[in-house]
Amino acid sequence: MIESLLVANRGEIARRIIRTARRLGVRAIAVHSEADVDLPFVREADEAVCVGPANPAQSYRNTEAILAAAKSTGAQAIHPGYGFLSENADFARTVEAAGLIWVGPGADAISAMGDKINARNLMAAAGVPVAPGTTEPAADLAAALGAAAEIGYPVMVKAAAGGGGMGMGVAVDEDALRTEYDKVRAFAERMFGDGSVLIERYFPRVRHVEVQILGLADGRVVALGERECSVQRRNQKLVEESPSPAVSPELRARLLAAAVRAGEAVNYRNAGTVECLLVPRQRDGKDDDAAAEEFFFLEMNTRLQVEHPVTELVYGLDLVEEQLRVAAGLAPTFDPDALDPRGHAIELRINAEDPKRFLPGPGVIKTWVEPTGEGVRVDSGYVEGNTVTPFYDSLMAKLIVSADTRSEAIARARAAVADFALAGPKNNLPFFAELLENPEFTSGDYDTALITRMR
Fold first, then answer.
1. pLDDT tens-digit map of 410-455
2. What CATH class has 4-103?
3. Which helix (H) or strand (E) holds 226?
4. Which of 95, 144, 368, 371 lies 20 to 30 Å from 109 when distance is taken between CA atoms?
5. What are the sequence ranges of the domains in the chain?
């Protein structure tokens, strides 16, 4: 096993990784910005190094400062968590060139999956279903218009280098495409340094379902079930659950097999996620929501996902431990040929944001009392007295519940939300109380437009 691990991240995911590292007897090293000096992950690490001011570009994305911290502390490996440098192939290569262990997939796999067009083409070649779309960037508006005419409206306009629900727009006709193309291209150049644009068929009613994969040290790729991620605002997830209430055993078998093929196509190692769209099958010209049996590859996230805890609870695993074992060349703690998922798990992302419009609302945490009890887990990045600053993502904690059945998990989530005492920053607990009573959600028959209909 790795002996010392630097966690190149912050907040709840840094704290989460540190917890597993210390349980395994691995020396845990935190890096932090000046703004985060008082957060729990800094205190709970065996050693902590300040790598710069609040601006992420000068701290959590500062590769030179992070590598200098690794060298000065004698770190053997680096875990990037999610966000920041986690899907930066150049950083992964630099880490390995420095003689350190990178806890993640190889840089080539990150590069291959980082470009949406390249990823689509690779998946299609591997036999993974992809939605109708362009096989190369739409070089200009004329090319975009031509592609849309061939694909058929409505279309999704996507930044090829984008991710996290950013850099996307929907065009229902030529006029809308003219606007969206320029908007997405400008955003992509500004945010990602790459203005390449992909045109893809847009499906008005879809579910967002993803598969957790793990590329083992011996070269095998295994699938650890699916997660339903359709409760979204601005194309970003708020709730995840496993298993998906929309996935039949037959569809699950096809979905998991396709995810394994996706991983094998890029010689994937370590944890990753294959994201897909589930599209209602057409019957007699109408959408039959009960028969959502067609799926298309959306993208691959070459890192640990925010929502990994629901998979952990259903499979009885610690995915961070499995990541460390793969990186160290060790076998997994489980038998890949005898996976035994049980029960149901739901995750709610507790954000510092307005529960109506979902706009950020940072501030000092005056009250923070986490719910407890059977089947209740909280992965938090803050404690009472901490300040949620405007410099980073608004995620404060993840409330995860598990039970034998979905209905029991929902009941447990209702109680946990009611018991979570939180005051100071704006927060979305009131939204979750509303969602957990919503008939669409409780029935399991919902899609990515659920929040829009609620609001």
1. 999 999 999 999 999 999 999 999 999 999 999 999 999 999 999 8
2. alpha beta
3. strand 221-233
4. 144
5. 4-103, 132-201, 207-454
Token look-up 């709970």 returns: 44
- Compute the C-alpha angle 235/239/244, nearest 5°: 100
Residue from 303, 349, 377, 412 carrying the catalytic annotation: 303
User: Measured between alpha carbons, how far is 397 from 378 in angstroms, rounded to an integer?
Assistant: 7
Query: Cα separations (Å) of 244 from 235, 240, 292, 361?
Result: 18, 9, 12, 31
DSSP type of residue 335: -
Coil, strand or helix at 268: coil
Q: What is the model's pTM? A: 0.93
Residue 27 falls in the annotated catalytic set: no
* 390 Ramachandran zone, left/alpha/beta (phi>0; psi -120 to 50): alpha
In contact, 23 and 333? CB cutoff 8 Å: no
Tokens 């993208």 locate to: 299
DSSP 354-409: -TTT--B--EE--EEE---STTEEEEES--TT-EE-TTS--EEEEEEEEESSHHHH
**C-alpha distances in angstroms, 395 versus 64, 174, 426, 427?**
26, 37, 12, 10
Residue 414 amino acid letter: R
Residues 288-296: contacts with CB under 8 Å, at least 24 apart: 289/205, 289/445, 289/447, 290/445, 292/207, 292/246, 292/251, 293/248, 293/250, 293/251, 294/129, 295/129, 295/209, 295/251, 295/254, 295/255, 295/258, 296/129, 296/130, 296/131
CATH architecture of the domain with residue range 132-201: 2-Layer Sandwich (3.30)
Strand, coil or helix: 52: strand
The CATH homologous superfamily of the domain defined by 207-454:
ATP-grasp fold, B domain (3.30.470.20)
211 - beta bridge partners?
226, 274
Considering only residues 349 and 204, tell me which one the structure prediction assigns the higher pLDDT. Answer: 349
Could you tell me whether strands 27-33 and 4-7 are parallel, antiparallel, or unpaired per DSSP bridges? parallel
Question: Is the preceding omega at residue 129 within 30 degrees of 0, hence cis?
Answer: no
Phi, psi for 132 (deg, rounded to 5): -55, 130
Among residues 225, 264, 257, the alpha carbon closest in space to that of 244 is found at 225
